[in-house]
Design a protein that fits this description.
The complex is a heterodimer of chains A (100) and B (650). By secondary structure, chain A is an all-alpha fold. Chain A contains three helices and no strands. Chain A has one domain: Helix Hairpins (Orthogonal Bundle). Helices cover 78% and strands 0% of the residues of chain A. In chain A, helix 1 runs antiparallel to helix 2 and helix 2 runs antiparallel to helix 3. In chain B, helix 5 packs antiparallel against helix 6 and helix 17 packs parallel to helix 21. In chain B, the strands form two sheets. In chain B, strands 1-2 form a two-stranded antiparallel sheet. By secondary structure, chain B is mainly alpha-helical. The longest helix of chain B is centred in the last third of the chain and has 49 residues. The chains are: A mainly alpha (100), B mainly alpha (650). At the A-B interface, helix 1 of A face helix 27 of B.
């Protein structure tokens, strides 16, 4: 059986890659993919813990996060499409109307 | 008549309210007529009440409590005793004539309704002042007339000079009023100290009963009576334009001329004299304060007369003459001749009211010109004004048997013979009398006699005033002639009506010896006439025919002439020693206190700090969503790190 430490380590690595992706990628699509990565890193940790401690609640949370990720993707991509139509770009650093 | 006392002040108040509210919707003549009628009816009630006082004694009317705090009770109490009766008669009688005169004088003024509202309001306050039964209520009237004086001096407020003349009057009066309040509080406080908190009262009758308390209690080396009398006198100096607080009165001539006649000659400025006679029980027990009153009065009389002889503005001559005559009244009350002071107050109201109204008639005819050097020869075009003006001038100069002659005579006699008086006061008074005769006839001769020195255009418009203005002149002229009958001396086989009438009010009179024989009294009167006639004769000899001679004299005594015509540079001295230091202090307060501290550090400082902080940190907001994400991440990392470092869940 794969020890819990490995699962957690993998989850942490995936979360780190996702975080770096969100912070450094300019393309909004890539940022979304990174966010998905972070969400699923969380899922992995939940599943790992669930298997180790035989709890059912964590499975429910995982299912909930999957749905949430789908919803988030639907709204997020709608925003990206709207932004592309209006401004002709999907680069995050070209959109700075909130600059102080 | 005994129960209608409150109507005397209320009628003018209602008149003022009418002019200020309903009158604005009606044709303007309604306001004028209502104002005149209000004062007229008040005069009728006042004369009726005065008659009642004469026959049956004082009337008291309580209209309820004004201030009731614990044991302190100050009522809205009016009382008419002989002194108030005389004052009411003067205020409503002369006031009525001046109201009538104003109908003509102000007929073409845009502020007609406002004018009559103020004039009625003034009459109301003046009547409260003279009818009040306690000091605080008197002070209400005292401040009220001051307010109306301010409003009417600055009546033509579009002219900054006139508006600031009003402010000057108001501010100078505040100095005196501050002292007045302190005197009032001192009297109250002394009673509380002596008899406990329930013992304090400022009712005149109570104060009178407790006069021995004020004479025996000591306060800083003097008696309370002396200190309070002096403080109240400082208030009187402000209101009645005495040295050194007289400077506002000449400037007050900026107001309409009937206002100068009513407020700044006949009634309001005599309030100080009235107050001292009202408080005579306090003053007779304070000889030092009385000496101050007498000397300030005599000095003011001479000082103002010296200024008046070189003034060229007809109203300024009359203004300084008023200050001088008020000095006479203070001289009278200062030596203990209280009834003589009130007698002169009354005759002065007649002839000075007349002179001011006459001056108003001249100014009206001369299209606003007030410089007597540009008048001359007006007797041809203004016969009534001319005759009545000369009557007034003769009366104030002390022409034998006219009203001013008798009242001034009494004062000079008292200044000499009173135990509180002396030869020095007589000399000051006598010199003033001679100067008065001179400057009044200089003014009258320059204005009315000789050839005209007016421009062609002004001469073309010359006209006698309408009947509403001439009639009051004639009535006041008659009063100026026969007013002396109120106080005929014993030598002429009469009893001094004013003296006897006021006797109940004068609680502890100063005994002034009468002349021993009728011959001595006649001789005294002869001497007084000689002084007056000398002054008049000299003025009429010099003006207007020998104008060149007068000017050459002025040239040879240039320094003295400049001193007088520049009013002894008193305004400049005030500017140097009071106004400029005060202004410098205010400037420092403005720049450092207000500008640097309140505005700078306070208001703008806080706002600036917030704004600067915002500007500095606004660059953190790049609008880039990833920068926000980094901050979010870093924040989360810090919180998490701190949480673990502090021990986590354990």
């Amino acid at each position: 059986m794969i020890p819990l430490e490995h699962v957690i380590l993998l989850s942490a690595v995936l979360f780190g890659i996702g975080t770096v992706g969100v912070l450094i990628r300019r393309n909004l699509i890539a940022i979304f993919m990174s966010i998905e990565l972070m969400l699923n890193a969380g899922n992995l940790a939940f599943v790992g813990f669930a298997r180790q401690y035989a709890g059912d609640g964590a499975h429910a949370v995982v299912l909930f996060i999957v749905v949430l990720a789908a919803v988030e993707a639907a709204v997020g991509f709608a925003i990206v499409v709207a932004m592309f139509r209006n401004r002709g770009t999907v680069n995050a650093d070209e959109v700075n109307l909130m600059k102080g | 008549m005994a129960d209608s006392l409150h109507w005397i002040p209320l009628l003018p108040l209602l008149g003022a309210l009418f002019c200020a509210t309903v009158g604005r919707l009606l044709p303007k003549i309604c306001s004028g007529v209502v104002a005149v009628l209000a004062v007229g009816f008040a005069a009728a009630v006042a004369f009726g009440s005065a008659w009642h006082v004469h026959e049956h004694g004082a009337i008291v009317s309580r209209m309820g409590d004004w201030i009731a705090v614990g044991p302190l009770k100050i009522g809205i109490d009016l009382a008419m005793d002989p002194l108030s009766a005389v004052m009411c008669a003067v205020v409503t009688g002369v006031g009525f004539l001046i109201h009538v005169y104003s109908l003509g004088y102000m007929a073409h003024d845009a502020g007609y309704r406002r004018y009559f509202a103020f004039l009625n309001l003034f009459t109301f306050n003046m009547l409260v002042l003279v009818l009040a039964k306690n000091l605080p209520l008197l002070f209400v009237g005292w401040e009220g007339v001051g307010l109306c004086s301010y409003l009417l001096i600055g009546f033509w407020f579009e002219d900054p000079a006139k508006a600031s003349a009003g402010k000057k009057a108001f501010i100078v009066n505040r100095i005196g009023d501050a002292a007045f309040v302190m005197g009032m509080l001192l009297l109250f406080w002394t009673q509380v100290q002596a008899t406990g908190v329930t013992g304090g009262s400022l009712d005149f009758s109570d104060l009178q009963e407790k006069r021995s308390l004020f004479e025996t209690t000591s306060w800083g080396g003097w008696t309370v009576g002396t200190v309070a009398a002096l403080l109240l006198f400082v208030g009187a100096c402000g209101k009645s334009a005495q040295l050194p607080l007289y400077v506002w009165l000449p400037d007050a001539m900026a107001g309409p001329t009937p206002v100068s006649a009513l407020i700044h000659a006949a009634t309001m400025v005599t309030a100080g004299v009235y107050m001292i006679v009202r408080m005579n029980f306090l003053y007779t027990g304070a000889p030092a304060a009385m000496a101050v009153v007498a000397w300030v009065g005599a000095s003011t009389a001479l000082f103002a007369a010296l200024i008046a002889i070189t003034q060229t503005d007809i109203k300024k001559v009359l203004a300084y003459s008023t200050i001088s005559q008020l000095g006479y009244m203070f001289l009278a009350v200062g030596v203990g001749a209280f009834s003589s002071g009130i007698f002169h107050l009354t005759t002065h109201a007649f002839f000075k009211g007349l002179l001011f109204l006459g001056a108003g008639s001249v100014i009206h005819a001369m299209s606003g010109e007030q410089d007597i050097r540009k008048m001359g020869g007006l007797y041809r075009m203004l016969p009534y004004t001319c005759c009545t003006f000369f009557v007034g001038a003769a009366a104030i100069a002390g022409f034998p048997l006219l009203s001013g002659f008798f009242s001034k005579d009494e004062i000079l006699w008292a200044a000499w013979q009173s135990p509180r008086g002396g030869p020095a006061l007589l000399v000051l008074g006598g010199l003033t009398a001679a100067l008065t005769a001179f400057y009044m006839f200089r003014c009258a001769a320059l204005a009315f006699l000789g050839a005209s020195r007016a421009s062609e255009e002004v001469r073309h418009h010359l006209h006698e005033s309408p009947p509403s203005m001439v009639l009051p002149l004639l009535l006041l002229a008659v009063l100026s002639v026969v007013g002396g009958a109120l106080g005929l001396p014993h030598a002429l086989g009469a009893t001094n009506f004013m003296g006897h009438f006021l006797e109940p009010v004068i609680v502890s009179p100063v005994e002034i010896p009468h002349p021993h024989t009728a011959l001595a009294e006649l001789g005294w009167m002869g001497a007084a006439s000689a002084v007056a006639l000398a002054g008049m004769g000299f003025a009429l000899w010099l003006y207007p025919r020998k104008l060149a001679l007068a000017e050459s004299w002025a040239g040879s005594w240039r320094r003295l002439h400049a001193l007088s015509s520049n009013k002894f540079y008193v305004d400049e001295l005030y500017l140097l020693f009071v106004v400029l230091p005060l202004r410098a202090f205010s400037f420092v307060c403005w720049k450092i206190g207000d500008g640097l501290m309140i505005d700078g550090a306070g208001v703008h400082g806080i706002a600036g700090a917030v704004k600067g902080g915002g500007n500095a940190t606004t660059s953190l907001q790049t609008g880039n969503v990833q920068h926000s994400a980094i901050l979010l991440w870093a924040g989360g990392a810090v919180v998490l790190g701190a949480f673990l470092w502090l021990g986590g869940f354990a």
